Structure formats: C-alpha cells, structure tokens
C-alpha cells in the first residue's frame, strides 16, 4: 500500500492552535505548505476553556500578532466577551482576556487557512515520518500517501497516544472523543526521541436553559473593549456575560465520599497533571481548609446554550459528576451535556529541542505546542509561529529566529522549555519573566513587529503605520521633555490631581512621573501638536511614568545580552573541558546550549562551571584563530 | 559571573602581614574608589600608574575612616587589562574589612568571585594560553573550598535565619504574583498595608542580624577570648604558644583595654581575639591583685574563657572564686604542667564546668595544643559558643548582601507610599529575595513558582 503524493517545502502535522500558526507562517513566508489534520472539522478547536488570553497568555497573543500571526485577529473577529484584567495594577501586567465563540473561532481560522496562498489544508492522520540519513524528509499518512518535504512540524496536542479517563472508564481517544494518533508515537520513539506522559483535564458542560442564574453573580465584559490585534480598530458585537458561583459544602462531601473512585487517587492515571490547573477533587484534597471554590459559568458560543463550568475540571465517574454538578448553587437542576474527563498523552521531553524548536536528534523535524510539554492554546500558538518561521527559514537557507527572554514571553517560554525542561504541563505566568516591565501588553509591537517585518510576516502597510506610531510617540515624549514649567504654571493641574505642589520648576515630564497625574490631565493644559491615537498616548504615558524602573531593567538586560552574545560552537566537546563538575558536564552535553547565557540557566551548572567554560572558549577561539592565520 | 562590571576583593591573604591590599577592577573602579577617597586630587583626573595618599571616608557620615595609599592603573596596562585601583590599608584586618564594607556599599561595585581577577586577566588576553589550565584549577579549587565552607554553614544557625527571612519574602512574592497571574481568583487582594508589614518585619530581622554583626565581635574582631587564671599557672606560655606556634597571626591590635595585650589569631580557621592578662602581675602583690581584677574584667567581656590551672598544685581558694564567677559562661579548662606530678583534684573542678571541656596540656613540652584546637572547634561548630552563627554574618560579602536586601525592602516600602503598582514593587521584593539567596548560594530558579502553587489553590 502507499503512493507518492506531492512534494512540499513544509508539512505541518496537526491543525490545532500550534499547527495553524505554524502553517500560516510558513505559507506566508513563501513556502509551499501542507497542513494535515485527523479531522477537518477540528481545525483550531478549543477542547477546554472557550477563552483566550489573561496574564502572560494574553501577552503571547499580542506577541503573535506583533509578529504577524493569526490568533489575535481571529479572536478579535469571534469574541463574545472582552475584559481587560489587572487594570488596578501596573501597565506591564494589564492583560486582555476574551471569551470566544468557540465554533466561530474554528470557522474563521479554517476560512483564513483555506484562503491563504501556498497553503493546502488536508484531512489525514500521519502514522510515520519519512527518514533519510537521519533527517526527516516527509510523512506517511494512514491512507498510504507519502508526502515529501524539506521540513516537518509536528503538533499533536493531546492526540499522541491519547487516553481518556473518567472514573473506572478508560479508553484510547483524542480530546472530545476524537480519534487518537497512536502509531506516530512509536515512530518518534524509534527515531530516538524520549517521550513522557502528561495529563490534563476538562470540566463538564451544562445546558444554560437549566441553569438558575439568579443564584449566581453576573460577570459582564468591558464597556469599551480593547482588542488583541494591532490591526483591529473596532468591533460592534454584543457581549455575553459569564456567571460566578461557588462549590458548596455538599460538593466537597460528595467528592470526599467518592475519592476511592477518583482516578487521580486510585492510581489509574500515570501522567503528570498541571499544577496550575488541578481538578476539583485535587483542589479539595490539597486545600482541605478552603470552604468553597469559585466556579465560572462561561458560554461556549453565541448559537449554543452549552456552558463551560470553569473551575470544575474532574475525572470522577459520570454518576458522581452529576451529583457534584447539582450540589453547586444555580446548577441544582442543571442538565449535564458532556462529562468532564482527564486525558493522558505523550509529549516530547523538550530539552531535546534547539531553541528554534527543531529536534536535536532529527534534523528537519520541528515540534510545537502541547507535544513539547506545555498547556494552553496561547502557549501552543506561540510555539507554533516560531516553529513555522524556523521551518520556513531552514527551507530557505536563512538564519533561524530565536526570541530572547527580554524580547517576549514566547522567548521566555521556549528558553525555559529547551533549557530547563518541565516536570508538569508548562503554563506561562508573568512571574516566569525576569523583565516583566519590558514585556508589556502594550508594547508587543515595539518589541517584535520589526522582526515580523524582516521575516516577511508583516505587510508593508502595517509596518509603515507602526513606524509612524513609534515616531509620534518619540516626538511627543521629546516635546514634553522640552516643555519647561514654573511651579505656579501647574498649581491648578496639581490641585485637580490631588498632587502636592512643585517646589521648583523643570520639565513637564516631572509631573507625569507622579502616579496620580495622568497624560489626560496634562494634555488639557499642554495640548499636543501631533495627532495622537489613544494607543500612542498610552505609550507616552507608560514610557515616561515608569522610565526609572524600565531603565533599571534595561541595564540588567544589557548584562544578560553580553552573555547571550557569547556563542558556544556547536562542535564543542564537553568531555575535553577539564575542570567542569561532572553534573555540569552531563547537563551541558544534554542541553547543548547555544550561548553562555543559556548555559548559565541550566540547573546544576554553577558560576564556577561557567567560568571554566568561558576560559575554555577563549582558549578554543585563540587556538582556532591561530590555526586560521 | 557577570562580566565587565566592577569587582573588588582583598588581594592579600588574610593573616599574612599587617598591610592588606584591596583590589578593584572594572569600568567603574576609578569612579567608585574616588567617591570614598579623600585626597588632594580626584582620582578620575589622575595619571595612570600613580600612587596617592589620603583617607577612606564614609560617604554617609563624611568621616575619615582609614589612612590609605591608593595606586591607580588604567587599563589595558593593568593586571586584568581593565581599570584597576588598589587600596593599601595599614590598619590590619579590621581596617580592611571596614574599607571593604564602605566600598561594597557603592552600587556599582560587587565582591569578586573566586579567581575572578585572574579569569578576567585571561579573558582580556593578559595571560597566555599556557596558563589557561592553571586558571581553571584556581577557580575550581577556590570555588570548591568556598562550597565546602558554604555547605558547612548551610547547616548552621545563620543559614536557618536567612532561610526564614527568605521564606517571609517569598510568601510576599507569591502573594503578589498570584494577584497578578490570577486576577479573578478569590485570593486575598494584595494591599500596600500588607506589603509594608511584610517588608518591615523582614527589615527588623535583617537589622537584628546586621546589628549583632557590627557589634561584634566575630571574624571582624574575632571571638573575644580571655585567658584567665592565677599567676604563674602558664597563661603567658599559653598565649605565646597560641600566637607563636600559629602562623596565622593577623595583627597586633593596639590595646583597647590599655594594659591588656590583645592578639589576633586563627585556630582551624576560627578567629580568636586573645585578651591576655599575663605578664603584668608577677612583680608585687599589688600588681597581682590588679591582675586578678583584670582577669575578672576580661571574664565579663569575653565570649570564650580559657581557664588555666596548674596540675602540680591543689585547687586554691582563688581558683574556686574564679571558677564560681565563670558560671554560665563558655569555658574551656586547661590543666597545664602535665609534665609535673599531678596534685590537682579534677573532681573538684567538674561541678563548676556546666558542660565545658577540660584539656590537659604541657606548655613546656608543647603538648595538648591539638586537643585545645579541637575543643574550641567543637564548641564553635556545635553552637555551644554564643553568637557563633554571627561569625558568618561578619563575612563582608554576607554583610553587603544583607544590606542590599534591606535596601530593597526599604525601596519596596517607599514604592507603596509613592503609589507604585504591585507588579513594580515586586521587582524590589525580588531583588531582596535574590540577595538573600546569594548568601546561601541558592538558585532562584523555579522555587517561586512552586511557592505560588503550594500556597494558593489555583486553576480552572
């Protein structure tokens, strides 16, 4: 059986959030790209929360958009609620979060993919990689089609040897009862990749008709919604609220009485679950003192009455789930439409990857998304775009693109994964970033759009608009800097702001440095000659207000970058380096860091080891230089 | 490990000679020293390879602290090929520690890592290739030794205190982080009030550690050790044995207690400041009495008392009186003159000891010194000596890190008053946590994330 199908530049296996970004990026960069998915109806499917964004995750969506990816535009077209979170905190952690119409989200993404030049969307399950001299040069489908390509991106999500677990019930399955991918796992193993078993889960869904919303609190969207994409200027959709309720004493009792039937505790689950997204039974056992837990009821779309019961992830047997649901105020008579379940799947140990997301063992093979040990749509999409970009650049013979830790959450995530690995499904948190103040929601374009333009994912028109914005922001900051004032000039303004009087004159900027003075107040007294959008004003305000802290972080980044610029040659032989501690030697051999900076972040590599490495490199470079001359 | 910042370290081995040199290297070396150096001409304007006389001043108080000679070598014509300043202090170990302390309060100077000057010299091309391996060995051996010491300390009292401090800070951090990363979760909202309370609590504890460090006594000045006993039991001999037999004489400290001679020695790496009451009392009865009084004074001041008895004599009334006054103190009884026939009833001594040890010696035959060293080490490392944990705080590096942590906590408090948002305040709190971590040699790593998930119940 089998036949030779078409030859492509790049093949992407899986059309979830990672696969869609990877395929779109590669195709838009000019590569003839094939996107294969087990079920064409599951493109960009949200098997869990019908929601995108939040702290760190929302930042990633902005970064994807700044690079020219799709997730931001797609959610802007399909959201049913938009909220800016953390508005009471600093600008760095303002975080946009959308509730999606999950069906519309899929349809929009599918349409975009279908209409993208160079991109072929095809239903098909991949069973095998085609290998040639240790390189991956294509894939074989279940139906025997042999597709050849110069680079392959595998994004299997939770499909790889997926297994659904619910109480005593257990069966092979992808998410939401989709067909799992079984054979590919064996193929990856045969080719030397180490796999681990992870687990995640999802809560039940209930029919909104049967919810008593009067017993819950309403959670409306923002009156003036912001958007994820820098391209989206407006949207007039009607927003749909979410609802908040809590578990009851009776919920906790039902769970405690049935713990012996919970796969979490009976030993039926072997995979490691995410710490940040525990099941409700896990929460109740681990935090026994907490009398109640929040439950958000989130609509799954505009044209359905199905509600997602957030906070209620469970793998209890169906009968227990029913009792549990009905113990929650507002859900006493709820009709459960789908069960919650746990799902186990295979993932690749991510330290086997280069920071480009290409595997070290198999040249030409890239992996992205949940297969790399992460969790979350945004994390998947963030890796997807990078894998797609690097697959395309490899095909085109160009230098790979690596985003630094100081340039984006995407960079933080990938560096964490490939340098430290992960013991449980990895979720991005703002606290994982050292330079949070630089990695803001508002400045993703300033950080990444020049790169997006350079690699060909940002259109000329958008780039020119970006440059104009940047210029106007700089001009306005300069203008404020040069506007000098006497204390008497601004007494009224400061009174209005409830701010202390100035003791001496100076630049207007001094006023804006005060937390209680906003750009809006300043603008009234010192109107700008430039036509500034809200976005630009926000940028001016943030850059001035937090200048001191930003400067401090920039200095730290400069030090980091010095270490990042010290490249370690790929052919370095760690056995040859005298003076490395054994643990460090083993770790360095495994990770094969590209720079001294990356090496220093490997657990078990001490500053003394780094010094030894630096000296060896200097030695190496001098010897190499001497040979060369 | 960060390169091209400015580093400083004491370049002369501690314990060898009265002059100590502090070497400073890096782009800010000249400016940083200039800031704390009072002399005719600013160092910044001085020519390379010149020596300057002046005083180190404390920039906070503007007081002159030490008289020093400063040599200036501009890069690349220096050992490291960077700008290098060397401060020659003549006042011995305490003076050097004080200068180092002031220097490290400069924000742009940090303490050098083991072998770092040599490493820089190599990386900047000042040392040839043949020596590369030697440099690696140097770094390795110094780091390993530092590690061994750190591990020993990690079991100590100080490290527990630092860990407790860090735990305060990390709980605060986790609380801030959870507010940021889980804004809709029903965890307690972080308030300025709460941040201030936590920071203030931490500052109080850091202050406590710093205060005990500066009050006293140990390492900077050594464990104050009194040799006491009746005349002619061998106190002078013991003093001489300890100081002469030991190559680790650091310096003579001009007597703060006038007639009492002070000597600074290290035994097994433990610094002792010996107060000797010997040598002034054997001429007449009056002086003898003074001697005994001085011994008593010394007893009230000292951290450790070496009480010397004569094996060749029965216990005297004076001995008993002294022994009584030693109640509750850290005492080692030295029974000297073991080379002579035993007339001393040790059973009479034991009730007074409350757990202290007895070491039998013969100064004349130089026997028993090893046992004495062991006895002191035991007391020291097992925590029987009061304030022993403070030793580690007296380490200049630790002091500077504690001060840095304290400053960051202050910054955080100030930021709350200035209305700065919590995610920005977090930067200060995190700096404090990292500074404390550096004392323990811990890596910051993932433990914050661990803390978040163990402290709070989160998730969808």
Automatic annotation (TrEMBL), chain A:
Binding residues for NAD(+): 273-287
Localization of this protein: Cytoplasm
InterPro entries: FAD/NAD-bd_sf, GIDA_C_N, MnmG, MnmG-rel, MnmG-rel_CS, MnmG_C, MnmG_C_subdom, MnmG_C_subdom_sf
Required cofactor names: FAD
Residues annotated as binding FAD: 14-19, 126, 181, 370
Any one of the GO CC terms: cytosol
Gene Ontology molecular function, alphabetical: flavin adenine dinucleotide binding
UniProt key word Flavoprotein: yes
Pfam families according to UniProt: GIDA, GIDA_C_1st, SAM_GIDA_C
Key words, A-Z: Cytoplasm, FAD, Flavoprotein, NAD, tRNA processing
tRNA uridine 5-carboxymethylaminomethyl modification enzyme C-terminal subdomain domain sequence ranges: 544-615
Gene3D superfamilies: FAD/NAD(P)-binding domain, GidA associated domain, C-terminal subdomain, tRNA uridine 5-carboxymethylaminomethyl modification enzyme MnmG/GidA
SUPFAM superfamilies per the UniProt record, alphabetical: FAD/NAD(P)-binding domain
Any single GO BP term: tRNA wobble uridine modification
Family: Belongs to the MnmG family.
PANTHER family: GLUCOSE INHIBITED DIVISION PROTEIN A, PROTEIN MTO1 HOMOLOG, MITOCHONDRIAL
Description of how the protein assembles with itself and partners: Homodimer. Heterotetramer of two MnmE and two MnmG subunits.
Function of the molecule: NAD-binding protein involved in the addition of a carboxymethylaminomethyl (cmnm) group at the wobble position (U34) of certain tRNAs, forming tRNA-cmnm(5)s(2)U34.
This protein's name: tRNA uridine 5-carboxymethylaminomethyl modification enzyme MnmG
Gene: mnmG
From TrEMBL, chain B:
List of residues binding GTP: 232-237, 251-257, 276-279
Cofactor: K(+)
SUPFAM superfamilies in alphabetical order: P-loop containing nucleoside triphosphate hydrolases
Top-level taxonomic group: Bacteria
TrmE-type G domain ranges (all copies): 222-381
Intracellular or extracellular location(s): Cytoplasm
Cofactor binding annotation: Binds 1 potassium ion per subunit.
Binding site for Mg(2+): 236, 257
Protein residues bound to (6S)-5-formyl-5,6,7,8-tetrahydrofolate: 23, 86, 126, 460
Residues that bind K(+): 232, 251, 253, 256
GO cellular component: cytosol
Binding partners and assembly: Homodimer. Heterotetramer of two MnmE and two MnmG subunits.
PANTHER family xrefs: TRNA MODIFICATION GTPASE GTPBP3, TRNA MODIFICATION GTPASE GTPBP3, MITOCHONDRIAL
Role, per record: Exhibits a very high intrinsic GTPase hydrolysis rate. Involved in the addition of a carboxymethylaminomethyl (cmnm) group at the wobble position (U34) of certain tRNAs, forming tRNA-cmnm(5)s(2)U34.
Family: Belongs to the TRAFAC class TrmE-Era-EngA-EngB-Septin-like GTPase superfamily. TrmE GTPase family.
Protein name according to UniProt: tRNA modification GTPase MnmE
